[in-house]
Fold this protein.
Amino acid sequence: MLPRIEIGMFKIPSFAFMIWLGVIAFTLMTIYILEKKENIKKEITNRILMVCVIGLAALAGFAFLFNSLFHSIASGTLKLGGITWLGGVLGAFPVMVLCIHFLCPKVKGNALFYFNLLIPAICLGHFFGRIGCFCGGCCHGGVTDSVFGVVFPEGSLAAITYPAADGRSLPVFPTQLFEAVFELLLFATMMMFYKKLRERFLETYCFGYGIFRFLAEFLRGDNRGATGFALSPSQVMSIVLLLIGLLLVLYRKGKVLKGVFAKMQAYREETNVYGVNLRGEVGSILKRMKALQQYGAITDDEFARAEQDLTARITQKPVIDDDTK
């Protein structure tokens, strides 16, 4: 545990420092994925980064609300304060998808795909956040006599919850580091198998993190509030995350929310995945080609073949694969 980073006269809280590192890492990785991996226009990237600012605010707000709710249930009285990552995730994710849909008109109909591309960056940012939790001494595990046990210094939350005779904490599981390693591995897996997983990053996160977090909760030893059930708050939210992953799988297959699926497909017929208005572009090209036909620069057969090919692109379902780069 390193509560503060001291540089000369400056004393920087380690938790805050790592959170800012996480935000920077998330931003740089988002730009890299959108502009380098996907060749997406800078205009769209900037719009999505604007949505990310809204998403960060939503994440903080929902993390505060859910944490306050669970602690209020545990105490039986209104108790405000603290944050919970999963609560922030469950609230911020739909907010960001909706914001991409409404605030990024050039990608209308593909908001879910674009949000999906942010998931590796979210994992990387959360990795730094969990390192910050370890440095700050929060989100610790329960007491253990295993080789994984870590003793936190006097004054830390772990020492207050599980005090030893010398004022430090008893050995506890460093669940912050366990989660940081998992997030880093999840990020690395997504980047290593980018081509295969790029359309399924969100489902991968829902199932992967949902299962991990549900199991990791058995090792946690800090006060996270209550739900009124046998499961911890994070276990309940992990189940919700798993259900969202299942819902996404069924949605992509057209099994649920068929009305929404059809409407998004209609939007995609108007706009391709990189923000080009197909109907407008095709109409403009055909007008120029018609003029060339009238002047005899191209034959009637050449114009007819071009018209057929370009018109087909309007109604073609935009498949997001490697050939679209």
Q: What stands out?
A: The two ends are 45 Å apart (CA to CA). The chain has a mean pLDDT of 87. The longest helix spans residues 42-75. The first strand starts at residue 4 and ends at 7.
